[in-house]
Design a protein that fits this description.
The chain has 919 residues and is mostly helical. Helices cover 64% and strands 4% of the residues. It contains 46 helices and seven strands. The strands form two sheets. The chain has a five-stranded parallel sheet with strand order 2-3-4-1-5, sandwiched between helices. The longest helix is centred in the middle third of the chain and has 20 residues. It is flat. The chain starts with 8 loop residues before the first helix and ends in an 11-residue tail after the last helix.
């Protein structure tokens, strides 16, 4: 048999670590254990390929009676009278082998006993005797067994290999990815992702079982594994073993086990007895348990097979005629239509139009109740029994949709390729559009084609499809902030078939679309009273989530947090998409409200849900919020990591993910003091026909950006563009009566007026910003107003009022832990000369004779070390390039460095705390 090895990277790393310690003269004890067929021997052999000096032995069941049979495999024959003398011989043999292997630091010697449960007590006691006497030698002793608690293994050896100093490797089943690699390596089957997952579940990841099935079934295994309505096959060896055990049972026990296998991996004893025709099943159950075919627990009415492979082996060993008879009898005995349909489908031997139609009808009813997994099974069974190609494709498309909604499409590309071969239809285009969330442009084209192919007024089925398409359009346009279209399509979906939109966020999409298109206040007024989230219906919970978002867009962050916190808690059992949406909506409110620790927690929740469901494209908004929060706190490595991931997740088309990436990049660039990068990120959000006017993503209440772009243009001296952008943004903020947006616009207007040399206009704008700040519930935005106003006042020689504004800003920024802006604030306060910097921002001597860096010099040092040019540093600090050069000369002298590179190395090495003046 061809030797094949896949996976086990972590286990090999553990063994390599033990070998490294052994080579260093620390003798190692390694225990490798796991059930039969799990790959223990294959793992050890792969590891030993890199060990040149090996003493190897394996126990054999037939050889258990040989006193020192395993020891003779290790060191050759000998005449030993007891384990002590045999162990001494093993130690001497090891010493000779070590001498051949070389001196200290050379290769270790491995002693391996495989299948130790069959090695014999005498050999194992001798091994234990030798192991206890290993001191500072390059020896690695590996014991391989199914279970170290096996009574055939001496207690002394068991203690040695389960002690804390021992290395213990417990092998579990292979993961689906490793099973796919196994199929590829064998060259017999190319497993789909879904088939690999089911093979893992069916075999427990046992490579022995998996390999047997791959070689036995060939390409047909994929089809069998893809079908969740049937029992996958079992290895022939397992079937033969099961049949042998059944043959040893009484007729009653055999009938009970056979009946249980037709009912699934587990069933109640009463169900199995009824199907088997047994009035008293207990004697039969006792025998089935003794033969290892069934398991039972006292007080539990359910009987189970010990492993899925055992159930499959019994079931397939029955033969087709008996299986069919059992399923037909089970269908006649049950009073549940769903169960009867399942058994009738299992009994079917070919196309069955009426049965297929019944299964499809039941599947659609399950789908209407959002029981997606059940619906997928029933529609898949209907497809198998379909009378023609058209019916097969229709049932398959509906089944795939249910799998998608259940989160059971691990490889979208595989499914897309499969249904792409189907005949053109509305369902096909709709589903293909649903399968490409990373490419909104292509999704829109496909959905429009699907809409063109259906007639909601002519057919009930088309009406359901139309509702599905409309719901998908709403989700698509909502993801790219096209609010009016999102709201219109969501309302249309609710009019067509409110219970058949195939999304549990449709009512939320209708309300959030109103929010992003300027109708938040009107939508709030039209929304009736809603109950507490804990007692809300699914429809009401969607509306509560929508109300929370509407409140964010109207500036009522307190109400938004109350709604959205309740929705997330009440939606624990809802779909992953619902929870991702709820967590993202809550994180958005928390970001504006300054609850930044909660932002990170809820973004991580949303991202993990999206990853676990195989749809990372569902959470780019949350990734953006995480990037914004990390940037504002000065956690630049984390912020950059989120931005990189967003760039990688952005598909080939569509504005949605691109917009969130642009916003993340812009906020990060603002915090780093790089206005050129802010402009580069945000200019693309402006309409292409009017590059100097505000764009379509600037609705007040959303993530703020027009003020960022205006500030960047102001810093770069492009006052005309800044003024035009601010004019439109101010007008929009006033129309929406949004306090925080008016506050941001007024602050930005003040900075622009100051840059234009109009202090009176700047003073007026900043005072206006302060008035709006009293109504705004955004502490970070308010802090930036006080900081900007304080900077302006200091530059106009009004140091006392400047210090008052800056102290307020410092208090707000410290509460948020907004370190980069807090540093700017401390610098401004130091420049006022009226305040003592907060603890941790000033500096102390680097060495006894070094003068301390001033606050301004420390800031310049950090900026230069971050890679900014003198001109960029001057622009950010509002000083001249000559002044930067002056500070840099003093910094070099104080630190004893002669270049920007050495300065960067000094700060990057984590030595900033020891810089002159840093305390």
């Amino acid at each position: 048999m061809k030797r094949v090895f896949v996976g086990r990277g972590e286990e090999l790393a553990v063994l390599e670590g033990a070998k490294g310690r052994a080579r260093a003269g620390q003798p190692q004890r390694v225990l490798v254990e796991g059930p039969e067929g799990i790959g223990k021997t294959a793992l050890v052999r792969r590891f030993l390929a890199g060990v040149p000096h090996v003493l190897y032995a394996e126990g054999e069941d037939a050889g258990t009676g040989l006193a020192f049979g395993v020891l003779e495999q290790l060191i050759g024959p000998g005449r030993w009278t007891d384990p002590g003398s045999a162990g001494t011989a093993l130690v001497e043999a090891l010493q000779k082998t070590l001498q051949k292997a070389g001196g200290a630091g050379e290769d270790a010697v491995a002693v391996v006993v495989d299948d130790a449960q069959w090695a014999g007590s005498a050999s194992l006691r001798a091994l234990g005797f030798a192991v206890r006497r290993l001191r500072a030698v390059r020896v690695l002793v590996v014991v391989v067994t199914r279970d170290i608690t096996d009574p055939r293994i001496p207690e002394g050896l068991r203690r040695l290999f389960t002690a804390d100093a021992a290395v213990r490797v417990r092998l579990e089943g292979l993961e689906p990815a490793a099973l796919r690699a196994l199929g590829d390596t064998l060259g017999t089957v190319r497993l789909t992702v879904r088939a690999a997952g089911r093979l893992c579940e069916h075999t427990g990841g046992n490579p022995l079982y998996a390999r047997a099935l791959l070689e036995q079934e060939g390409p047909g295994l994929v089809e069998a594994l893809e079908r969740t309505d049937i029992t996958p096959p079992a290895p022939k060896s397992c079937v033969e073993l099961a049949l042998a055990r059944l043959a040893s049972c009484t007729a009653q026990a055999e009938a009970l086990v056979a009946a249980a296998s037709a009912l699934g991996r587990c069933c109640t004893l009463a169900e199995a007895a009824l199907l088997a025709g047994l009035a008293d099943p207990l004697p039969a159950l006792e025998q089935a348990v003794r033969t290892g075919l069934l398991t039972e627990r006292q007080g539990d009415p359910v009987v189970r097979f010990p492993h899925p492979i055992v159930q499959a082996a019994v079931y397939h060993g029955l033969g087709p005629a008996r299986r069919r008879a059992l399923h037909l009898r089970a269908a006649s005995l049950t009073g549940e239509e769903e169960t009867a349909l399942h058994h009738r489908a299992c009994a079917a031997t070919g196309p069955a139009p009426q049965l297929a139609a019944g299964l499809a009808a039941h599947g659609r009813r399950s789908a209407a109740k959002e029981q997606w997994e059940k619906a997928a099974r029933q529609l898949s069974a209907a497809a198998r029994l379909a009378p023609d190609r058209a019916a097969y494709e229709q049932y398959t498309l509906e089944s795939v949709e249910c799998r998608l909604l259940a989160g059971d499409v691990p490889d979208v590309a595989e499914v897309t390729e499969h249904i792409g071969e189907f005949a053109e239809s509305g369902w096909r285009s709709y589903l293909l559009g649903r399968l490409c969330p990373a490419d909104p442009d292509r999704a829109e084209v496909l959905l429009r084609d699907a809409w063109r192919r259906c007639d909601p007024d002519a057919d009930v089925g088309d009406r359901v499809l139309a509702a599905r398409i409309a719901g998908r359009f709403a989700a698509l346009y909502g993801s790219v902030a096209r609010g009016t279209e999102a709201a219109n399509w969501a309302r249309l979906a609710l009019r067509l078939a409110p219970e058949a939109t195939a999304t549990d966020t449709i009512r939320y999409l209708a309300l959030s679309g109103m929010a992003t298109s300027g109708g938040a206040a009107r939508a709030l007024g039209e929304l009736g009273p809603l109950p507490d989230p804990a007692v809300a219906s699914p429809a009401q919970l969607q509306e509560l989530m929508g109300r929370g978002t509407l409140r964010v867009f109207t500036g009522d962050l307190t109400g938004a947090l109350r709604d959205l916190t309740g929705v997330l808690a009440a939606g624990r059992t809802y779909s992953a998409l619902f929870r991702v949406t709820a967590a993202g909506a809550l994180a958005a409110a928390e970001y504006l409200a300054g609850h930044w620790d909660d932002v990170i927690a809820h973004c991580e929740l949303a991202l993990s849900l999206a990853d676990d469901s195989g749809r990372p494209h569902d959470a780019p908004y949350c990734r953006m919020l995480a990037a914004l929060t990390h940037a504002a706190r000065g956690s630049f490595a984390e912020a950059h990591a989120q931005v990189r991931r967003m760039r990688g997740d952005t598909g080939p088309g569509g504005a949605g993910p691109f917009v969130w990436t642009a916003l993340a990049e812009a906020h990060l660039a603002r915090t780093l003091g790089r206005p050129e990068d802010v402009v580069s990120a945000l200019a693309s959000l402006l309409p292409p026909s009017e590059q100097d006017t505000s764009g379509t993503f600037d609705e007040p209440g959303a993530v703020p950006w027009p003020d960022l772009l205006a500030d960047a243009w102001t810093e770069l001296g492009d006052h005309r563009r800044a003024a035009q952008l601010l004019g439109r943004y101010e007008a929009l903020a006033v129309r929406r009566d949004h306090p925080a947006a008016m506050m941001r616009a007024a602050r930005s207007r003040g900075a622009l007026a100051a840059a234009r040399g109009d202090p009176a206009a700047a003073e007026s704008a900043f005072r206006s910003a302060l008035r709006h700040a009293h109504r705004a519930q955004e502490p970070f935005g308010r802090a930036l107003v006080h900081l900007a106003y304080g900077q302006f006042l200091r530059r106009t020689a009004k140091r006392t009022p400047a210090a008052g504004q800056l102290r307020t800003a410092r208090s707000l920024l410290a509460g948020l832990d907004a370190r980069p802006d807090l540093e700017r604030c401390e610098r401004e306060l130091a420049a006022c000369g009226l305040d003592t910097p907060a603890r941790g921002t000033d500096v102390a001597p680097h060495k006894a004779d070094a003068a301390p860096l001033t606050a301004q010099e420390l800031v310049v040092a950090r900026k230069v070390a971050a890679g900014l040019t003198n001109r960029q540093v001057a622009r950010e600090l509002v000083i001249s390039p000559k002044t930067v050069e002056f500070h840099l000369g003093r910094i070099y002298a104080k630190l004893g460095v002669a270049s920007r590179t050495r300065l960067a190395v000094l700060l990057a090495a984590g030595n900033e705390a020891a810089l002159p003046g840093q305390n």
